[in-house]
Amino acid sequence: MSNQAFTPSFREALWISHNKKCIHCRRELLFAELRIDHLLPEYLARAAAERDAVLQLVGLAPEFDILGKENLAPSCAGCNDQKGSTILEPGRLAILISKVREKIAAVEAHERNRQAAKDLDGILRAVVSSVESGKFSLQELKNRLSDLGTGKDGLTLDFAVSSEDRARKLILTTEVVDQLRRRRITLAEIVASIRNSLAHNDFKVDRRSVSAFLIRGRGGLMVTFEMWRHEVRVTNAYIS
Q1: In which element (H, E) is residue 177 found?
Q2: Which residues are within 8 A (CB) of 234 and not within 5 positions of it... i.e. 6 or more apart?
Q3: What are the residues facing 35 on neighbouring strands?
Q4: pLDDT by residue (tens digit) across 117-150?
Q5: Which of 240, 201, 202 is nearest to 218 (CA)?
Q6: Model confidence over 178-225: pLDDT tens digits?
Q7: Which of 236, 206, 207 is CA-nearest to residue 222?
Q8: Within 13 Å of residue 162, how many CA atoms lie on the same side as its CB?
Q9: How far apart, in whole angstroms, are the C-alpha atoms of residue 196 and residue 69?
Q10: Closest-CA residue to 225 (of 217, 213, 237)
Q11: HSE (CB half, 13 Å, CA atoms) of 34?
């Protein structure tokens, strides 16, 4: 069993990026079945002399990171247990590491997408909290957002992300996902646009109904969303 700790977002990103399959037997995995396999055994990270010898034996560079993403792959319990601390044959190992390296960019994009989703969830909830307080102000909203992450650009939105650390979800309707894809707008760009509007005091919120809100801001920003008990449902998102 691995001693290395992994975040829920990394586990999910690795699982999705590898098409929810075990890298060894190619069997489809449920998320609950996922094991994260160190292609080169994890113990080598703590055994410098043996690690150097093994890396030389299998033809990997001395700086290869045993705990890094290029050595981490999704596995089923059976394959993970059977492999154990075995050093794979160099040819087989090279193929698997090559497959893992090809997926690293996708894994990182999914992780960023997850963070952007959590940021947007926090922003929209802060908007509602400010409006419902009866004294909506940009400064109050800025204060409420002070602990949120900044988000990153360059995400590819291809799945709705749920927040596992709290019993709620950020839901992007099918229409919104299609809309963002067509216009090549990322979730992180929506987050950044809201923050930009806040920074320049160019931000308006209209309450459309008891639970529905419309945000307007700089650069043609428009986000329509509804609040439910355990979810935020985004029904429109646009920036020009």
Answers
A1: helix 174-183
A2: 120, 124, 170, 171, 172, 173, 176, 223, 224, 225
A3: 75
A4: 888 888 898 888 888 887 788 877 877 776 554 4
A5: 202
A6: 888 898 888 888 988 988 888 888 899 999 998 999 999 999 999 999
A7: 236
A8: 8
A9: 33
A10: 213
A11: 21
